[in-house]
Amino acid sequence: MSHFTTVKTALVDKRLLLRALDELGIEYEEGQLEVKGFEGTTPCEIRIPTDHDRYEIGFRRNGACYEMVGDFDMLDGFDREDFLSALTQRYAFCAVHDRLGADFQVVEQHQEADNTIHVLLRRMV
Length: 125
Hints:
By secondary structure, this protein is α+β, with helices and mostly antiparallel strands. The protein has one domain. The protein has two helices and seven strands. The chain has helices at residues 14-23, 80-100; strands at residues 5-8, 29-37, 40-49, 56-62, 65-70, 104-111, 117-123. Strand 3 and strand 4 form a beta hairpin. The longest helix has 21 residues, at 80-100.
């Protein structure tokens, strides 16, 4: 029997979370929504459709952070650790880029085979 699982994250800023999803090319809906699972639904603020039409994953605020929620037992082939790792990395990249503001310009960036992101910056004076 499946059930909803909640995964704690370190994602705190909804704006950066949505930007990270956009940059990863992940479709989502935002609002007072629900995620579908095998035995019903659970509330979320951000809903992501999956390849499994009947099941989705979502994010909802829990205190200071967002948590990821879904009926992961029913999502064959979906690796939540890999998904969350990629999302967290892109979120961190967006946060750094956001904090740099107009003082720095990205001169070069590339991603290694191990998914390490290298960024060369130039300070604007």
